[in-house]
Amino acid sequence: MGAEFIFRMIGMVIFGIGGVWLGVALGDAAQANIYEWGPIFGLVGMLFGLVMTPYLTIRPIRSIRKVLNQISTQTLFAGMLGLIISLVTAGLLAFPLSLLPLPFSQILPILSALFLCYIGVSVFISRKNDIFGVFSGMGGRKSISDGSEKYISNTILMDTSVIIDGRVSDIARTGFLPGELLIPRFVLNELQYIADSGDNLRRQRGRRGLEVLAQLQKDPMISVRISDIDVEGAQEVDDKLVILARQLKAPIFTNDFNLNRVAELQGVKILNINDLANAVKAVFLPGEILAVKVIQEGREAGQGVGYLDDGTMVVVQGGNNFIGVELETVVTKVLQTAAGRMIFSKPTADED
Q1: 284 — alpha (psi -120 to 50), left (phi > 0) or beta?
Q2: Residues 59 and 75 placed together within one structural domain of the fold
Q3: Are residues 59 and 74 in the same domain?
Q4: Is residue 137 part of a domain?
Q5: Between 12 and which of 49, 52, 74, 156 could a Cys-Cys bridge form, CB atoms 3.0 to 4.6 Å apart?
Q6: What is the domain count for the chain?
Q7: Same structural domain for residues 152 and 230?
Q8: Residues 160, 237: one domain?
């Protein structure tokens, strides 16, 4: 039995009783038959209560909760702090304003309270970053700034994709991830769902993610916490992560391209493992000598393709004649693409 059904029944009874009372009162005032007016108005009230009660009670509450869940904790706290200070100020002003002659003594205290509450909430919300910056400075906590948002550096939200990827354990051991790795329960549930998938590839990926997570928890040098924290009003895991990141002021560690774009549009900081991998690849300039083993032919005629230890693709002009051979090449061009860095080279004069 759902809450909406219970509210409908309660509303039907209340509005039904109110309808009977109204029908009797109107029938008595009109000197009509109250035994006809009462049941008619009672039935109308019951129908009104049955249909309209959810729209007057539970549905507005759900809408308000959904909006509040999408507002960050800092915004809510700043708004409540501004409201409390405004109400205290309005209370102090109420007494002197009440000494004014009528009608000012009755109107001005109410108007001043409404005005101060609006100004207080607006100012505190607009300056929330400065307010919490003062608090964090007093507490000695460090934060990193990213545009208009500030992210507390002691928590990093983990996405399902980056756990399955597996490289997070190696990165965490290096110490480049400061603070605690936080894995919400809904991310763990999605990981378990993938591990139980009927598709063999997805099942292997999910099980590898669970193994990576177990390794992270066993490593004493890595701080990992699984939390039951959840986000109401959102169904998709990515949506929940973005909302939670805004509430906690924490970055999201992921390699999911779509989540990356959505989070950036909403002002959430992203730690992308693929961007990190591309950033730490060796930099080669045109004219430098590069040793590479050609393993296959390229897409264009006469080309050969090899790979460096970090996975960077090297296209060797005229390298189709050196398949299976490691040779020295001179870099001619370096191209940065969305998929990574690509190097074009040609054999040195000695190999030509």
Answers
A1: beta
A2: no
A3: no
A4: no
A5: 49
A6: 4
A7: yes
A8: yes
pTM for the full model? 0.48
Based on the domain organization, do 235 and 317 belong to the same domain? Answer: no
Q: Give the H or E element holding residue 248.
A: helix 237-248
Task: Identify whether 109 is part of a domain.
Answer: yes
Domain end among 279, 307, 332: 279
- Long-range pairs for 5-11: beta carbons < 8 A, 24 or more residues apart: 7/53, 7/54, 7/57, 7/58, 8/49, 8/50, 8/53, 8/54, 10/53, 11/49, 11/50, 11/52, 11/53, 11/54, 11/56, 11/57
The answer to the question of residue 26 being in a domain is yes
Three-state DSSP class for residue 81: helix
Same domain flag for 269 and 296: no
Q: What are phi and psi of 259, to 5 degrees?
A: -65, -40
Considering the domain boundaries, does residue 40 fall inside one? Answer: yes
Structure tokens at 56: 């007057």
Instruction: List per-residue pLDDT tens for the chain, 352 residues long.
Output: 577 888 888 888 998 899 889 888 888 787 777 778 888 888 998 999 888 888 888 888 888 877 776 676 777 888 888 899 999 998 898 888 888 888 888 888 889 889 999 998 888 888 776 776 666 555 544 443 443 344 444 788 888 888 888 888 888 877 777 778 888 888 888 888 898 888 888 888 889 888 888 888 888 778 888 888 777 777 788 888 888 888 888 888 888 888 888 888 888 888 888 777 777 777 788 888 888 888 888 888 888 999 887 778 889 988 888 888 888 898 888 887 655 678 899 888 655 4
